[in-house]
User: Fold this.
Amino acid sequence: MNHSISKSVFARAQQLMPGGVNSPARAFGAVGGTPVVIERGQGAHLYDVDGNCYIDYVGSWGPLILGHADSRVTESIRQAIAKGTSFGAPTAAENRLAELIVGAVKSVEKVRLVNSGTEATMSAIRLARGFTDRDVIVKFGGNYHGHVDSLLVAAGSSAATLGVPDSPGVTRGTSQDTLVLKFNDVAGIEQAFSEHGEQIAAVILEPVVGNMGCVPATNEFLQVVRQQTERHGAVMILDEVMTGFRVAYGGAQSLFGIQPDLTTFGKIVGGGMPIGAYGGRQEIMDQVLPAGKVFQAGTLSGNPIATAAGIATLEALQQGDSYPKLERLASKLAEGLHQAATKLDVPHTIGRVGSMLTLFFNSQKVTDWEVASQCDTERFAKYFWGMLEHGVYLPCSQFEASFISTAHTDEHIEQTIQAAQQSLAMLT
Ligand SMILES: *Cc1c(COP(=O)(O)O)cnc(C)c1O
Assistant:
């Protein structure tokens, strides 16, 4: 495969942008070499500037559950654009997207639209602190909630990959109010509440972590977080920026039967346009300005183009058999990868919930960051490049989830399994 145009575009990018990218995960830092530069996407496929075609499992890191350039989404965007790109005033489309979110997720009674997942978690944290009049936030190792100062501690994915658990520029004061606990550790959360219960404003977590590879919370863990937060008057924030409308239409909370106080969204709710949302119990949401006193605002929030893409995506997901199809294709892929790795004696374990999955180069089941960090990342890098050469575009880190879209077919999955057989064979 020739990547010469990608290489020259990226060389210029490095002179213009830090590391040549606008978000670190794109830079291929964890696998070495230079990223391929994308020209366009269609359905399950990505095309780079050198004309190479790949089956895509990144899906823009989660949003593209319908695949690239789905005509229902692009048509909805086209219609919205013709009417203007932004008004900074109420629109009926905002009601429609809010209705879809409130209708899908039982714990969400009111919702506020913002511009990114980071903004959603940042705002939810402020709201939880304002509501409880407390300072301390509990988070878990390997969970990523965007680049919010107080949450940029032990934050998985980019941070973990680069070996930077704390970012320079986050003040000691800020990180002092963040308590980092081990994911899936029931005793840890019980102990934290018995020691600091009166100071804890909120517990924030990913129900299925996507940012240390795909690692689901156990049912027991989620139940204990729910019980402890309720008992001590803390707010439970479920970060469903990745899992919302991904693992089920009602989010991971509908799969696990859990009712958080607040939920954050992003990615799929914007159908590939920049968006985020946070919502939850009316009593808490009514603390947000101008209904209440917790400040949060945004010039482009509820943007009509982003809203149009989100509405089209959620409406498409309501129709037909999207989720059974995603489940069937993802389980077929997981089974194929497992068989290929087993046959070649490659130590591995697969984390999967619905259409999110990770092949970990680790013989032990991954339940937390301590186990995840023992993966053979050099092996992953070789596997990644093998797959790319065979026309499969995977997330460029062991600690990211692959995503399947409704545009994927049985044939794509079969091609991917064949590519994996060849790529894994090169490792041994
Ligand atoms: C992607 C992600 C975020 C951050 O969203 P951005 O839109 O990138 O700011 C927050 N939380 C989780 C769980 C995510 O996967």
Summary: The longest strand covers residues 200-205.
